[in-house]
Amino acid sequence: MQKIRPNYYDRFSCIAGECPDTCCVGWQIVIDEQSLETYAHVPGEFGKRLKKSIDWMEECFGQVDGRCCFLNERNLCEIYGELGPKMLCQTCRNYPRHVEEFEGRREFSLSLSCPVAAKLILTGEEKVEFLMEETPEEEEFEEFDFLLFTKLEDAREWMIEILQEETWSAEEKMQAILFLAKEMQTCVDAGTFFEIDDRIESCKKQKWETKNNISGRFRFMKSSVSLFEELEILRSEWKITIEKTKRLYHGEEDYKKIRMAFEEEYIEKNKESFERIQEKLLLFWIYTYFCGAVYDDEIYAKAMLAVFSTLWIEEINMMLWLENERELTEDEMIRTAWRYAREIEHSDPNLIVLDEIFSRDERFEFEKVQEAL
Ligand code: SF4
């Protein structure tokens, strides 16, 4: 079995009560079978409390005002405090560690939705490297398209390489990864699998350039902002953020002025950290989700998720910069990223809706998106 993880993975450590937005609020925490069994047999007063506070039908912890009922006023977990870390259920023990499973391969990552993980994922000057470990376990999945998986892996390896290439702009990188995904999608849809290698090779030779077409960006962002209305909203503050961002698209001329000022007054002055965050966002989505296309053949949609998410996190940051008298710190940019991930990455229904829309809706065709890049 091959086990892969990014080089920052082992540095994660939960800050519990110090966390600016604990993961024990706003989500229903599902309890695995084994933990339910253990909780059912905890003796004493705390055992009674567990029995009363677990929703045994739904197999999750009860909540009070959206907070897990075991989260105390200091934002510390009382199961951890009373019974120790080993008694946490699987969800609480693992989060924000995430694993994608493939035949003979486990790919570990941290979830962008945790503030501490987001900082590890998006900051730091060192290049992201992926560490590989081999273990003797063997397995065989009943249905696993190993051939497609190897093609996805080859494509992703090149995407990761160009995403970390300093001479390319983020817009050039986005065009390259979307185009390669589109080419692969065409082959898979047409059943011309044998062409994929050639397409990958020819994409590697293709040159891209940043269009910096603000009108094109305006059109794309305006047409895609309505997509948020089709998604499940987990937190009310997110709805407010989206409503405020929508106001950017009332008129093209106003948008152009805002965008130009943002580029000159913010991006230019904070070029290094701004570009690093863009690069690492793209890298995060591509590493974590691209090869998942082996299960549904939606290759283009996986690349689009990376591009869409990076563009929208940037756009929300532009709205915040404008709202905050043209000030925006790196921490605020990172905050937008984990808030976005809480809504999108942590909602399976949202990921399913996005996959469907990105693969079928003409607003997200390569040529349309390219106008914004
Ligand atoms: S969001 Fe991350 S840092 Fe915050 S409490 Fe949860 S695991 Fe810990």
If you had to describe this structure to a student in words, what would you say it looks like?
A hairpin with a 2-residue loop joins strand 6 and strand 7 (105-110). The protein contains 17 helices and 8 strands. The mean pLDDT is 94. With 373 residues, the chain is of the alpha+beta class. The radius of gyration is 22 Å and the shape is globular. The protein has 2 domains: 24-94, no CATH class; 148-370, no CATH class. The strands form 3 sheets. A 4-stranded mixed sheet has the order 6-7-1-8. Helices cover 55% and strands 8% of the residues. The protein has helices spanning 33-40, 44-53, 78-83, 90-94, 115-122, 146-163, 170-190, 196-205, 214-225, 236-246, 252-267, 271-289, 293-296, 299-323, 330-344, 348-360, 366-370; strands spanning 2-6, 54-55, 60-61, 63-64, 67-68, 97-102, 105-110, 130-134. 34% of the residues are buried.
The total beta strand count reads 8
Q: Biggest β-sheet: count, sense, barrel?
A: 4 strands, mixed
Oligomer: single chain
Ions, cofactors and other bound molecules: iron/sulfur cluster
Q: Kindly state the mean pLDDT as a whole number?
A: 94
What value does the Rg take, in angstroms? 22 Å
The topology string of helices and strands comes to: EHHEEEEHHEEHEHHHHHHHHHHHH
Form type: globular
How are the strands ordered across the major sheet?
6-7-1-8
